[in-house]
Design goal:
- The protein has about 300 residues and is mainly alpha-helical.
- The protein is built from 12 helices and no strands.
- It is globular and about 55 Å long.
Length: about 300
């Protein structure tokens, strides 16, 4: 019973922080672009409004895909250390975490593709292509850190950076951190890597057929993805944290970097994005890996 309650509370916490970051991010972007912007709690209002409205569904596959998408990312969150705590007492293996995260993304792809809308299909194909672009450099970064630490446990990698900021992997391996940050920008679907959404081109792509509770689930899925992805970076490069407040503050710092880039950069075409990811961050990640192997 306590384990179920623990999982439930961790899930609520991840959703809350993710929605809060989304709201603050929109406000920051608006101010950078000399607009006033919505209030920071707008994401909570949006989700509440969407779940109160009727939904248009197409088939069982769409229903299953939406649940699979949110469930996959919540399952990923259970394996990610949060200020030294894990929702379930099990492995924090990086390979398992990345595998579960992919299930969440594939669930969304399955759901929106089942709608039959061509714009949704184009958006899904772009999103899956983008996955090929950012996962290769990100896995290369992880490989280097696994070699250095002699373990693939995210918890142990985080603990190995304790003691001083000079022990953080972002200080010890700055090239790996830069490559991971670029990959994170694409992972979160922020500019210049948001070709899968592109409202002016494909009417928001995957979200074009989502309404009511389905769009609300998509909001929650994105919120959890923000929480999970920033938490992974904090554990990999910033030594985690000894308390929840410090951990969330570090997550927010990472998220702000993606927001600043989102506010000022134009969108890549999908082929430009993949080419960039396979050259710039991949080249940086490979260089860092070589330096690690030469030590």
């Amino acid at each position: 019973m306590m384990a179920v309650l623990r999982v439930f509370l961790f899930s609520l916490f991840a959703i809350f922080i993710g929605l809060l970051f989304m709201g603050i991010g929109r406000k920051v972007i608006a101010r950078i672009q000399l607009r006033y912007g919505p209030p920071f709690y707008q994401a909570f209002l949006d989700v509440g409004k969407l779940f109160s409205r009727k939904s248009i569904t197409h088939n069982f596959v769409m229903d299953l895909g939406m649940v699979m998408s949110l469930g996959g990312l919540l399952a990923t969150m259970l394996f990610v250390p949060i200020a030294g705590h894990v929702a379930v007492k099990t492995s924090t293996n990086l390979i398992v975490i990345m595998y579960l995260m992919a299930i969440g993304y594939l669930g969304m792809a399955m759901a929106v593709a089942a709608s039959g809308n061509p714009n949704a299909t184009i958006g899904v194909s772009r999103a899956l292509t983008m996955m090929l672009g950012y996962e290769v450099p990100f896995f290369t970064v992880m490989l280097g850190l696994i070699i250095v630490n002699g373990t693939s446990s995210l918890e142990l990698i985080s603990q190995s950076q304790a003691g001083s900021i000079l022990n953080w992997n972002m200080i010890r391996f700055p090239l790996a951190f830069i490559a991971a940050e670029i990959a994170l920008q694409a992972m979160m679907g922020e500019k210049p890597f948001d070709a899968m959404i592109a409202p002016a081109e494909i009417a928001s792509g995957p979200m074009v057929e989502l309404s009511g509770k389905y769009l609300g689930l998509a909001f929650l899925t994105h919120a959890v993805s923000i929480f999970v992805e920033t938490a992974i970076i904090v554990n990999l490069f910033m030594g985690g944290a000894s308390n929840i407040f410090t951990f969330v503050l570090k997550q927010f710092e990472i998220y702000l970097i993606t927001v600043f880039i989102e506010a000022v950069f134009p969108r890549f075409k999908i082929e430009q994005a993949v080419k960039f990811l396979w050259t710039v961050p991949m080249g940086i990640a490979v260089l860092q890996l070589i330096l690690i192997l030469l030590k």
